[in-house]
Amino acid sequence: MKQLNAKFNFDFMGRRKLAYVLSAVLLLTSVGSLMTRGLNFGIDFTGGVLLEVGYSGVADLPDIRNRLSASGFGDAQVQNFGAASDVMIRLLPRQGEDADNAKLAEKILDVLREGDAAVDLRRVEFVGPQVGEELTEQGGTAMIFALLMILGYIMFRFQWKFAVGSVAALVHDVVIVIGMFSVLQLPFDLSVLAAVLAVIGYSLNDTIVVFDRIRENFRGLRKGTAVEIANTSINQMLARTLITSLTTLLVLLSLFMLGGEAVRGFSTALIMGIFVGTYSSIYTATATALALDVTPEDLMEPKKEELLDDMP
User: Which residues pair with 78 in a beta bridge?
Assistant: First the structure.
């Protein structure tokens, strides 16, 4: 690790203005899409119908999706739960004749039994829109509360300029990840919300590691400007950041490719978060602290007054 760190000498902060432009473009695109297109909310937020069916053998999910799509249920979310023979089907709220849950369940069961006559309907459940509204409010409240607690923690551990930088990075990451789901119109459900909260934790951890090294160098290095010390600190932690990001990314790519529909949204959000979080811990968080004119004196421990002995 030390040998690898010694080879890095990039001028990250010298390119921070270019990073400002890139972040501004990503944020404007994300916010614009959220305001115009919105999110493609899943059944957890919109309400709808949930069905559980059982097969005698391993369920063929692609075939189930194709049959439902051909019968007018193209919005159905199909995934395994528990055993490979158990299937969960989620549908957005239906209008007209299909609004009757019993009739809807019978219609879907008929479609599925065309492929396998032994399909067994185990449960039909209606998720009301009021539940969706409560989940939306609670999810937003959880994010705001998390950001406020993080702000207080960084102010206590470091200094308010670093606290502003860390929260700016977290807001930056959350808005861009959610915005990309809006731009691509990917399904946004509770698993994606959980991934967004996990991105906050991942990005914060990376940011604190960088800030910790900056604080050490501010106190230890006698020469150099704040920008130079920040560059030195980032280069010293770059190997650790890359190794952590790459190993995490390998796991998430495995989940994305092999985990199936159940974890597709979760892994997608975290993959986006890895890239955005690594970028923001280097540029957004540190660059914001430098923009607020952080100096080594901000992190110096206050000198204790020496007590003079009156004795001769």
Answer: 89
What lies within 8 Å, CB to CB, of 30 at 6+ separation is: 175, 176, 178, 179, 180, 182, 183
Same domain as 200, residue 117 = no
- State whether 279 and 150 are in the same domain: yes
DSSP structure string for 125-141: EEE-HHHHHHHHHHHHH
CA distance 131 to 124: 17
Residues 193-240 have pLDDT tens digits of 889 888 888 888 888 888 888 888 877 766 778 788 888 888 888 888
Q: Are residues 26 and 175 in the same domain?
A: yes
Rounded Cα distance, 161 and 108, in Å: 57
Q: With the CA atoms of 201, 202, 208 and 210 taken in that order, what torsion angle do they form, in degrees rounded to the nearest 10?
A: -170
Identity of the amino acid at 309:
D
pTM, rounded to two decimals: 0.76
